[in-house]
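[User] I wish I could look at a protein chain and see how it folds. I have put the entry right below:
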Amino acid sequence: MVREDLPSLNAAALAWLASALFIVYGGAIPFHFDWNTADAGARLRWVLNLGLPRHVSSADVLQNVLLFVPFGAFGYLAAKRRGVLRMVLVTAAAALLSMSVECLQLFTLDRTASFIDVITDTTGALMGAAAVPIGMAIWEPVSAVAASLRWFAPREWRPVALALGVTMAAAWEPFDATLDVGSIRHKLSALSHAPWQRPAFGDELLYIGRYAALAGLGAAWLRVVGVRRPGLWATLGAAFLAIALEASQFFIDSRMPLPYEAAVAIAGVLLGSAVWLFAADRPRSGGVAAAIIAWTFVAAAVSMLAPFKRAGTPTPFNWMPFLSAYEFTTASNVSHVIEVVLLYVPVGAAFAWVRPRSVTSYAAASVLAAAMQSPLEYLQAWIPGRHPDITDILLAALGAGLGVWAARRLKPAHRLRSNDSSRSHRTAAVTG
């Protein structure tokens, strides 16, 4: 039986309301309304005659599904009834909200109502609502076994788990998995002709930082649980993961596995291991957090300002959040949103690490992330091909907030009876 270890009703309900308001905002942007009922009726007749479109944009489908996943998840957490009935009620609420937004679009000049949007929106909400009990059902026994083996009880495991999650998500986004043999064969053919392909310069520091953090934090964790030669095993494990994640991109439709990126990731692993060897006996959580924040800012600057060429005329700043996502709904835009959020998750995690009980960590981390991203957005106005946008500043704040939330909750649901910060746990050998 799944234990209902859920957040307070008020917090979940507020998050559910916020997601609903954001959906309405996204469905009405850019707010060019025409309240003539005759015109709205003509648009409705056109939609009814069109029915389900034959050709659907995969980017539109992915965007609609992802937009409603939080609505479904928060709705499940906020609903009073439990189990399947709760899931049905949340899904029905999502369908009603989606139909309401589509009706609102009948009174806009530049939005098009569609039956397929209602279907994908409802599907996304159902996925979000189902993910909560399924995730809890999986997490409970896994965390119980983990805690009983004493591998994951020490607090040093939490940053490792977060670094692992961010690294894997960054390697697989936008999560358009494929088993198409033709796509895999095409990638193999491209690599056989040019195995050392290099993408455009800019993301190398992101790769290095993520894998350096994974190797260094992994070594610290392995040392606490009593593994011999923790630096060596952390290096080998992180290097293997770098190669495995790069190879897994054969099955991500919009990604291309590149030996160059694997080599950059392994360079990050070696850097993280070297830093850990130097600082293993001088742990300073504040210094580590400051280093993570500083590296994030430098890596973000290089990624967003490359190729460092100055445009003759600056690009106007877009002050309407998510307007660009509406105007250009593509898989690359969805990927960009995920990239910015993941980029700033470590900033929030660093705050949670240094100030684990502070109620101001969410606000402080979000404000710092927004402050870090703001000058980069301004400078992008002078870079050819870049578009300064308030959206990225808000996404940076969101990523930092998610980092604080995740860092505080990455712990086994079943705690050991003894104090997991005691010396006995810190020096206990791994028994399996």
In short: The chain has 16 helices and no strands. Confidence is low (pLDDT under 50) at residues 1-9, 412-432.
